[in-house]
Structure formats: structure tokens, C-alpha cells
TrEMBL record:
Residues 24-285 form the CoA carboxyltransferase N-terminal domain. InterPro entries: AcCoA_carboxyl_beta, Acetyl_CoA_COase_Trfase_b_su, ClpP/crotonase-like_dom_sf, COA_CT_N. GO terms for molecular function: acetyl-CoA carboxylase activity; ATP binding; carboxyl- or carbamoyltransferase activity. This is Acetyl-coenzyme A carboxylase carboxyl transferase subunit beta.
Amino acid sequence: MAWFKRKDKGIQTPTEEKKDTPKGLWYKTPSGKIIDTEELRKNLYVSPEDGYHVRVGSKEYFELFFDNNEFTELNEKLSAKDPLKFEDTKKYPERLKAAQDKTGLKDAVRTAVGKSLGKDLVIASMDFAFIGGSMGSVVGEKIARAIDYSIEHNIPFLMISKSGGARMMEASLSLMQLVKTSAKLAQLADAKIPYVSLCTDPTTGGTTASFAMLGDINIAEPNALIAFAGPRVVKDTTGKELPEGFQRSEFVLEHGFLDAIYERKNLKKQVNLYLDLIQNQHIRA
């Protein structure tokens, strides 16, 4: 099958064929800059010429945050069921199996605990490559259990969001995860355990409407799409031209919904700085 399909209104790439981390010898950024993929990997998948942050997944974020990439994965075998017997062009179990085979993941989030700059940290990191990072019951359950682990062991919690929103194949069960994760974060706050939320490209839909915007500190990577409904939907609904950079992290920061934006290379240091400040500990070098 061709990698693109022609439509009446232009060329559109099917969602299942879109790429995240680049494959091949070269990678071309949206601005047209071309970079060797090995150099891109060494630069944390950030283009050195224009600063474009390529979408990456839990594997790369765990490598970035955990010292020596050493961590213990939590609840790694949880996998979704099909209680609604959902079927559109494919049956839901077939979609799950295809996504698992393609990505090597069980679902759209991985959770783990390890050391970051020498101190314990629990991380939940979403993977857009798995059905668009959509939030289903397993995503909500794994995040909830990771928060329980943080509370039980008195360890700070970092949520790395990258999601298209609720998973339509689970309907109301997916929407229930908004309440479930928000309630768990309230318990985390009651226990006075720090929570840092990192929004990456894209953070949209039910993810934004729940845990992604509930951090003690909300931060983002540069030029990340952060929204409830995406720009195209908003434009189609309002019929108006949108401001330049609408719903990108810089726009969101300017309008008060973020605390800061950091380049990927600075995330580990800055997250740990926030955690030290919140916990009133000595600042780590």
C-alpha cells in the first residue's frame, strides 16, 4: 500500500502509517532540515539546526530520566479486554493485537520506578505509537497503580503525556479514566507527594482534561500541541482563523496554562530541581 492517499482536499497520511521516531539513514524536519538519524539519536531526537523535537516514546524518556537507564517496570503485563465487543472496520481485539505486534508494547502507557539524579522517581510515560496514545481502561489502571506505588513508598511522580485523547473503542469506560486518575492524583496531593506533569506533542482530548493539567508543576517540550480539541476541529466549529501557533506549548504558556517550557536535554535537571524545591531539599548539582 502507498504511504499516502490522495483526497479531494489534499494528501493525507493514514494514522496507522504515521511514524514517530525516524527510520532510515536520514530524517527531514517539518522546516526542511535534513539530519543523519544517528546524529539525531545522539541529540535526544532533537534537530540541532531548528530545534525540532521528534516524537519519541517511553523507551527514550526512560533512557533520559533514569540514571544509567536502570529501572523496574510496574504492572508491565496488563492488557486490554473487549467488554463492549466493539467493531468498526476491524474488531477491537484485532486492533490491539496489531498495535502490540507493531510496537512491542502492551498498551499506550508504561510505568516504572528508578533513580533520577540519585533519588527515587516513579514515571508513567505514554506512547503515541500505540493507537495514538489513546487512553483506555488499561492506561487509567496503570497510571492509578503507579500513583498508588508513589503513595505507598513516598516517591515523587512524573507523568509524561503524549495522547490523542480517549479511546473510542472503549467508549464510556475510557471516559471513566478521567475521573479515576484525577481522584488518584487527589490522594497523591493529600499525601503531600510531588507530582510533575510533562506535556509532549501531542497532549490532547481527555488526557488534557484530566491528569495532564493537574500537576503541582505543569511543563512542556517546545512546540508541543496541547489542547482539548485540535486546531482543525476548533476552526471548523468556530469558522474563524486561529492565531499563529494556536494551542502550541508557547501559546499555552503565554495564556497561563503551563509553568515552563524546556528543551528535552534540560528536562531531567529541571524536573529534579522542581522536586527538590517542592520537597525543600538540597539542590542537586
